[in-house]
């Protein structure tokens, strides 16, 4: 048996290679003018990529049970980083946002590290206490309270984009864990309303929303970045201008090598190149969802929720990045995993994929080695989540009677395993 899932590894290597090439292409003019070295960002991307591989090897060497056991420590670590980054002298401010922790020559974005910590914590929480979310609002409130604290700290930086991605990932994990559909709808509407309220109370965020609706109305001021991005998409047409031939990267499009790198891809490789990269992303997300489904079927509840969270986070972040660059979503600073220049994003993306590949290896090992089959406890956990809602409701009734709580009304929402199988 191979120790590596070569299909997933190939997809990640393809995205990373494309990312290095496009970061090099989109940044050379800016890097030469700013740092006197046209390869400045290309070298730093390669450095962070090597560090990402090193971190990935370390993460892949740790058994899944260790990540599950110490999930609460990751929550503490996430909150600690979010607090430290706000302290003057420890956190570093760039472009008006205090998001970076300086570790020697390297600057790490706290919100990126929090994504990994949050996925591990919530997967651990749902594996151990997921049944509480099926009982009443009290069971749902606990994980939402933690989410609220993290989002509050993120907004203090401020980092609105990371808040949206984190909220979407956690909400999706709660949904497949068994939160009722009507509860989920209420939570979704409340979260959407809260984000809209935050946007309206912040003048610059409100300006971004107005600009998004009609960027051409103020194309030389608030709508400048988006209009330049759209011009890049228009220049690319079907097959693009060719690698290195982008015009927008010549100081027309700000952040051409980071948040708006997809516009440069569209300009240089056209619709064909855009479709190819999106196809690779979709294939990677499907592979991760397949691992999640196999984990749930094998009784590995933590592994299933963790990989599902990674899939949602990758898909959500890529969707928002493409949507912003193409004018489908309001402007928000989010990198595209493995593609955009961003050391912290690349490091965390490598670590998340290492966790997925460790889980995949353990599942394949369990399927070949009878001695690693499910224990009684794992079978029980799988039974709770692999049945239909009727089975989950029966478990909920037992939990409610033990705690003296009234039994909630049944719902027709499928279980976590059914939802994951459908997604995969």
UniProtKB/TrEMBL annotation:
Region: Disordered, residue numbers: 371-424
The reaction(s) this protein catalyses: [GlcNAc-(1->4)-Mur2Ac(oyl-L-Ala-gamma-D-Glu-L-Lys-D-Ala-D-Ala)](n)-di-trans,octa-cis-undecaprenyl diphosphate + beta-D-GlcNAc-(1->4)-Mur2Ac(oyl-L-Ala-gamma-D-Glu-L-Lys-D-Ala-D-Ala)-di-trans,octa-cis-undecaprenyl diphosphate = [GlcNAc-(1->4)-Mur2Ac(oyl-L-Ala-gamma-D-Glu-L-Lys-D-Ala-D-Ala)](n+1)-di-trans,octa-cis-undecaprenyl diphosphate + di-trans,octa-cis-undecaprenyl diphosphate + H(+)
Pathway(s) served: Cell wall biogenesis; peptidoglycan biosynthesis
Biological processes, Gene Ontology terms: cell wall organization; FtsZ-dependent cytokinesis; peptidoglycan biosynthetic process; regulation of cell shape
Enzyme class label: transferase
Membrane-spanning intervals of the chain: 6-24, 45-67, 73-91, 103-124, 144-177, 184-204, 260-289, 301-326, 338-359
Keywords tagged on the record: Cell cycle, Cell division, Cell inner membrane, Cell membrane, Cell shape, Cell wall biogenesis/degradation, Glycosyltransferase, Membrane, Peptidoglycan synthesis, Transferase, Transmembrane, Transmembrane helix
Subcellular location: Cell inner membrane; Cell membrane
A GO CC term assigned to this protein in UniProt: plasma membrane
Known EC number: 2.4.99.28
InterPro entries referenced in this protein's UniProt entry, alphabetically: Cell_cycle_FtsW-rel_CS, FtsW, FtsW/RodA
Biased composition (Basic and acidic residues): 400-413
GO terms assigned for molecular function: lipid-linked peptidoglycan transporter activity; peptidoglycan glycosyltransferase activity
Protein topology in the membrane: Multi-pass membrane protein
Primary localization class, coarse: membrane
Family: Belongs to the SEDS family. FtsW subfamily.
Functional summary from the UniProt entry: Peptidoglycan polymerase that is essential for cell division.
Matches recorded under HAMAP family: PGT_FtsW_proteobact
NCBIfam families attached to this UniProt entry: ftsW (TIGR02614)
Protein name: Probable peptidoglycan glycosyltransferase FtsW
Gene assigned in the entry: ftsW
């Amino acid at each position: 048996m191979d120790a590596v899932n070569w299909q997933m590894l190939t997809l990640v290597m393809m995205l990373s290679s494309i990312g290095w090439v496009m970061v090099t292409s989109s940044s050379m003019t800016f890097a030469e003018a700013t740092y006197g070295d046209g390869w400045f960002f290309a070298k730093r991307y390669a450095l962070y990529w090597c560090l990402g591989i090193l971190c990935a090897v370390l993460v892949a060497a740790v058994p899944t049970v260790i990540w599950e056991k110490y999930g609460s420590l990751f929550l503490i670590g996430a909150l600690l980083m979010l607090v430290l980054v706000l302290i003057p002298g420890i956190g570093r401010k760039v472009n008006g946002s205090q998001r970076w922790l300086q570790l020697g020559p390297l600057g790490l974005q706290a919100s990126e590290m929090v994504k990994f910590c949050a996925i591990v914590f919530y997967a651990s929480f749902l594996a151990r206490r997921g049944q509480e979310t099926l009982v009443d609002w009290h069971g749902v409130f606990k994980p939402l309270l933690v989410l609220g604290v993290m989002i509050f700290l993120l907004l203090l930086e401020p980092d609105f984009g990371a808040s949206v991605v984190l909220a979407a990932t956690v909400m999706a994990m709660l949904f497949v864990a068994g939160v009722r559909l009507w509860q989920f709808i209420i939570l979704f509407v409340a979260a959407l309303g809260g984000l809209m309220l935050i946007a309206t109370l912040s003048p610059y965020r409100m300006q971004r929303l107005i600009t998004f609706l009609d960027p051409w109305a103020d194309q030389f001021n608030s709508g400048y970045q988006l209009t330049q991005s759209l011009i890049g998409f228009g220049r690319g047409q079907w097959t693009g201008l060719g690698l290195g031939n982008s015009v927008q990267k010549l100081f027309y499009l700000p952040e051409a090598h980071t948040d708006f790198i997809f516009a440069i891809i569209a300009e240089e490789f056209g619709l064909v190149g855009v479709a190819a990269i999106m196809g690779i992303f979709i294939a990677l997300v499907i592979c991760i969802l397949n691992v999640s489904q196999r984990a749930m079927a094998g009784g590995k509840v933590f592994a299933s929720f963790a990989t599902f969270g990674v899939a949602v986070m990758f898909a959500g972040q890529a969707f928002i990045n493409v949507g912003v660059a193409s004018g489908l979503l309001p402007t928000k600073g989010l990198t595209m995993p493995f593609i955009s220049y961003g050391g912290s994003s690349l490091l965390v993306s490598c670590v998340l994929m290492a966790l997925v590949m460790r889980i995949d290896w353990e599942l394949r090992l369990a399927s070949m080695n009878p001695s690693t089959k499910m224990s009684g406890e794992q079978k029980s956990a799988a039974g709770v989540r692999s049945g239909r809602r009727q089975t989950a409701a029966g478990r909920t009734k037992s939990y409610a009677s033990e705690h003296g709580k009234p039994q909630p009304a049944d719902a027709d929402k499928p279980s976590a395993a059914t939802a994951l199988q459908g997604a995969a």
